[in-house]
Amino acid sequence: MRRREFSCAVLFAAVLVSLVWQLGVAAETGQVVSPQVHPDRRVTFRLHAPGADRVEVRVQFAEGVQPMSKDSNGLWSITLGPAEPDIHVYSFIVDGLEIADPVNPSIKFWRTSKSLVEVPGEKPMFFEEQRVDHGVVHIHKYGSKSLGITRGLYIYTPPNYKKEPDVKYPVLFLLHGSGDTEDTWTVVGRANVIVDNLIAQKKTAPMVIVMPYGHTPAGTVVGLDNRNTAAFERDLIDDVVPFVERNYHVSSDRKNRAIVGLSMGGGQSVSVGLGNLDLFSWVGAFSAAVQDQEEYRRLLSDPDSVNARLELLWVGCGREDFLFDANEKFLETLKAKKVKHVAHITDGAHEWRVWRRYLNEFVPLLFKTDK
Amino acid sequence: MRRREFSCAVLFAAVLVSLVWQLGVAAETGQVVSPQVHPDRRVTFRLHAPGADRVEVRVQFAEGVQPMSKDSNGLWSITLGPAEPDIHVYSFIVDGLEIADPVNPSIKFWRTSKSLVEVPGEKPMFFEEQRVDHGVVHIHKYGSKSLGITRGLYIYTPPNYKKEPDVKYPVLFLLHGSGDTEDTWTVVGRANVIVDNLIAQKKTAPMVIVMPYGHTPAGTVVGLDNRNTAAFERDLIDDVVPFVERNYHVSSDRKNRAIVGLSMGGGQSVSVGLGNLDLFSWVGAFSAAVQDQEEYRRLLSDPDSVNARLELLWVGCGREDFLFDANEKFLETLKAKKVKHVAHITDGAHEWRVWRRYLNEFVPLLFKTDK
Fold it and tell me: Which of A134, A265, B91, B181 could in theory staple to B141 by disulfide, Cβ–Cβ 3.0 to 4.6 A?
């Protein structure tokens, strides 16, 4: 195509886009627009499914399942909200089949694909990318000797990391949940964006964040078993920690090492952290799978020694979380053993909206060694 | 849950998995198994959709659209193949609605979500992760002064990069297509895996690979217009190249710079590469959007000067590609101008199976400066 023809096509497309946008279809591509976030924070969801008899949307900011309406072209739609500024999960239910929004590239896989819609705040939210210095996320593959396989590993370095080669940075080991992989804390959890923003606001010390893969061949698909935790612990301590220390200028002082995880990863951070207080002194658990009180009583059998070495044990859980009872029991165990800790009971269920907030609250507490 | 209970649950689950796997449902999670790649390279696709009247699968290795069969539980399935060892794209069509496989986490978004199924070779394929040294992929955000926005940038460094701080590595700028983003060449294209394998086999010089984002606010959604290419060119030359040279130990010699892209990115690599032979001397185009022959005749107006500076101009296109005619015309323009080039006409359509192969063939040709 010649340049003149391009210009005409572009102009034509631009006019069509402005005309047809309001019908829910982008003229340039003929493609359905979904989701569409309005300035008043209401959200329109659309699905082109002329052959369907019933289409519903399930979204975190609306009750239950909401029926969508079909127009004469077979385009189903509904407008819901206003929604709280946040990253919300949604899915369509088409004649009983639950699917992600086919035209939305933002997907979180958790057993099945779900879609994400980001509703921005009036001011930028803590998880929104802002005009600040940005760190770097490094995607590694390493040979795990303890597991005999190659594994993925994500590592975040803070904005000034390369400019300060003589600084030994503190390290946060950040563990994912049972339905996640090593990229989920950055792709869905926005950990790098959250910590970029905290550092820019001087709310936290700059740190390196290590995000390993939490499932092992020893575990089940769900991964919530002691064999998986034990295999993960070996991989983390014998392979990941040495890999990080060979490749990054980080502190190897236990007072500069923290470990925290969500759900399955929260159970791992408690077991690995409390079980290795010679290596870690800051431990956190977000909506953690902490069912094994017998194990924790064993790990805490010498509470004085634990309290002497532990800088922080932070336990966050939402009241609507299906693991809330388990976390209550874990907190009772801590109280019974007189192990110092911070109980952070909040609203919210077992979901990323909660875990992004917890990370934003937990990180500023770390590596303040004034005792 | 106590440890004993865990063991029982694990044993029970393992027995159930082995019993129920053949029914297409994993017992541990109750979840449908799809896709299932058999040792003979046939593939079974499954979808649980009791409310659907008709379910079909569209997959690259089978003709057209294949109807699936429904069992009494509403589980639709079909077994197809054997398939060539490759990464194949597929989707389900449920009463006319085309969707990705809800239970398969491997997704490629291109206007709509599609699923991927990897069929391994008897020996590992060139795009399969092998037991070799691995490079690192770095995820950057940089402030583009030319565009006035923050942009994403993926950069691959080869396995020995950190061990050789005095080496100035050659750089390949690798551009994506209109439906892609800066992560697609690694996530879907496996560029890092392919080059890891080539380096391990000593088929290529180690190199740094820079994968910028190819869309700009100046462009349309599709991005195939000269305004987008011009804005991208400024961002690449004024922002990306200096960013890379500030942050990586790379050569700034034009003989050590290559540029290649696919589809929209192929059009960009031709326009930016041939338009800046003071910066690049190796240029490649995979299934490229090279429609603007008037522009190319202008860029090639002094063929002797072009031939003197160009180390390689490599043009790959499949005969089934919808851009095949445009590439034929581009090759005619090159012939008419007597500009030296390599025409690499192959089987295949406009798809990632072709572009992974092209990358595997193109990279070993680079940075051999014996002239």
Answer: A134
**What's the CATH fold of domain A34-119?**
Immunoglobulin-like (2.60.40)
Interchain contact, B94 vs A96, CB within 8 Å: no
Residues A267-326 have pLDDT tens digits of 999 999 999 999 999 999 999 999 999 999 999 999 999 999 999 999 999 999 999 999
Decide: A304 and A261 in contact? Cβ < 8 Å.
Answer: no
- Nearest chain B Cα distance for residue A10, angstroms: 7
CA distance linking residue A338 with residue A343, whole number of Å: 13
Domain with CATH 3.40.50.1820 in chain B: 136-365
Could you tell me the end-to-end alpha-carbon distance of chain B, in angstroms, rounded to an integer? 70
Identity of the residue in A31, A51, A134 whose CB atom sits nearest the CB atom of B111: A31
Residues B140, A134: C-beta atoms closer than 8 Å: yes
Which chain B residues are closer than 8 Å to A94 by Cβ? 94, 97
What CA–CA distance (Å, rounded) separates B332 from B313?
14
Instruction: Please answer yes or no on whether A131 and B150 come within 8 Å at the CB atom.
Output: yes
User: How many angstroms separate the most distant Cα atoms in chain B?
Assistant: 79
Are the CB atoms for B292 and B226 separated by under 8 Å?
Answer: yes
Mean pLDDT across A356-364:
98
CATH number of the domain at B21-119, please? 2.60.40.10
Q: Report ipTM (2 d.p.).
A: 0.90
Closest residue in B to A112 (Cα) is B103
Low-confidence residues in chain B, pLDDT < 70 = 1-23, 26-29, 221-223, 369-371
Tell me the C-alpha distance between A351 and A116, whole Å: 12
Q: What is the pLDDT of residue A27?
A: 57
**How many inter-chain contacts (A to B, CB under 8 Å) are there?**
146
Q: Tell me the angle at which helices B3-20 and A226-234 cross, rounded to the nearest 10 degrees.
A: 100
3-state DSSP call for residue A352?
helix
Q: Which residues contact residue B267 at a Cβ distance below 8 angstroms, ignoring those fewer than 6 apart? A: B224, B229, B261, B285, B288, B289, B290, B291, B292
Cα–Cα distance for residue pair B259/B272, rounded to 1 Å:
8
Identify all chain B residues contacting A95, using CB atoms and an 8 Å cutoff: 49, 51-52, 95
- Set of chain B residues whose Cβ sits within 8 Å of the Cβ of A107: 107, 109, 113
Task: Name the residue of chain B whose CA is nearest to A28's CA.
Answer: B221
Q: What are phi and psi for residue B207, nearest 5 degrees?
A: -145, 160
CA atoms of A14 and B56, how far apart (whole Å) = 36
- Delimit the CATH 2.60.40.10 region(s) of chain B: 21-119
